[in-house]
TrEMBL record:
Pfam families: Iso_dh. The keyword Cell membrane does not apply. It comes from the Bacteria. One of its GO terms (molecular function) is magnesium ion binding. This is D-malate dehydrogenase (decarboxylating). It comes from Desulfosarcina widdelii. Belongs to the isocitrate and isopropylmalate dehydrogenases family. The lineage of its organism: Bacteria, Pseudomonadati, Thermodesulfobacteriota, Desulfobacteria, Desulfobacterales.
Length: 354
């Protein structure tokens, strides 16, 4: 029996509360389906930063090499500026391991109260494909004349042909594999003069290779409005790093809670470990209370199993999530219930065990 070697980075805040529940569910699924795990925990976090001046050790990336995957909770906590914590841990992992696809499913589940009137499970079921290693998330820029009346700050987005084409291709392939065969591209080519017309032209060029896929594009402002007005329109939505990030918080919010949303940071070529995390952050306002919803982390664990070649384990976990949500007796406060983090983990693990 193969033992999967998983690097675990619980990180900050509620990341430390939801990750143990993800592991609990994966262990339950593994026992049932003959998969063994070897978990190696790394305590890298804002606490590490306070102690050492760095979010992770200098050889942190090297230490993660050789694992089958990375399972991460959340990054960021008051006391460390957000750009320091993110660029000290999450972003270096994504970039060093060329995890250029950030795949984020958005789905309305039976049992979760939907804030959009009249929407039913099945009406909202799409993927956001976010470019994950370039675009607006860049280190290019700086500040000059700092502290003077002439202070000037610049920040440059970077879109390479290689990076743009490979994420758009991934999104086309995904759309082509789904019954609706519909791809939406997020743009802002009326206001952003260089990068977004370029993005649009690469989408249009690649569309010729996928004649069965219907393609539309929306400027990001009306696209966010349409997520709320007509979420059933969407099937696969591809966006740059920043646009994809925004859309993949808004999408799950339209399904009732962003806490159920998972995020797979994938290196599709399998050259490096991929990383799986919930979409949500460290939520300092509720950290330490045992009330965080662990479903985004548990679902991310299921996506990890799919990526590692265990689709049955993925399906078993997802079916257990569906059943527990539909039952409605074990929901955290964000879904209208009173259950705690561990209650949800235990209930889903029990459903997985059968
Ligand atoms: N679950 C990891 C986490 O803390 N996410 C919050 C966040 O702000 N992520 C930024 C990003 O995905 O780029």
């Amino acid at each position: 029996m193969k033992k999967l070697k998983i690097a675990v980075i619980p990180g900050d805040g509620i990341g430390r509360e939801v990750i143990p529940e993800g592991i609990r569910v994966l262990e339950a699924a593994g026992s049932r389906q003959g998969v063994e795990f070897q978990w190696t925990e790394f305590g890298w976090s804002c606490e590490t930063y306070h102690r050492t001046g760095h979010m992770m050790p200098e050889d942190g990336i090297d230490r993660l090499k050789g694992f089958d995957a990375v399972y991460l909770g959340a990054v960021g906590y008051p006391g460390v500026p957000d750009h320091i914590s993110l660029w000290g841990l999450l972003i270096p992992i994504r970039r060093s391991f060329d995890q250029y696809v950030n795949l984020r499913p958005v789905r309305l589940f039976d049992g979760v109260p939907c804030p959009l009137a009249g929407k039913r499970p099945g009406d909202i079921d799409f993927f956001v494909v976010r470019e994950n290693v370039e675009g607006e998330y860049s280190m290019i820029g700086g500040i000059q004349y700092e502290g003077t009346a002439h202070e000037v700050v610049s920040q440059t987005s970077m879109f390479t042909r290689h990076g743009t084409d490979r994420i758009i291709k991934y999104a086309f392939e995904l759309a082509n594999s789904r019954p609706a065969r519909h791809l939406t591209s997020a743009t802002k080519s009326n206001g952003i003069f260089h990068s977004m017309p370029y993005w649009d032209s690469r989408v249009q060029t690649m569309a010729a290779d996928y004649p069965d896929v219907t393609v539309d594009q929306y400027h990001i402002d009306i696209l966010t409005a349409n997520f709320v007005r007509m979420p059933e329109h969407f099937d696969v939505v591809v966006g740059s790093n920043l646009f994809g990030d925004i859309l993949s918080d808004l999408g799950p919010a339209c399904t009732g809670t962003i806490a159920i949303a998972p995020s797979a940071n994938i290196n599709p070529e399998g050259k490096f470990p991929s990383m799986f995390e919930p979409v949500h952050g460290s939520a300092p306002d509720i950290a330490g209370q045992g009330i965080a919803n662990p479903i985004g982390t548990i679902w991310a664990g299921a996506m990890m199993m799919q990526h590692l070649g265990y689709p049955d384990t993925h399906d078993t976990i997802l079916q257990a999530i569906e059943a527990v949500l539909a039952d409605g007796n074990c929901l955290t406060a964000d879904m209208g219930g009173t259950a705690g983090t561990a209650d949800i983990g235990q209930t889903i693990a029990a459903a997985v065990a059968g």
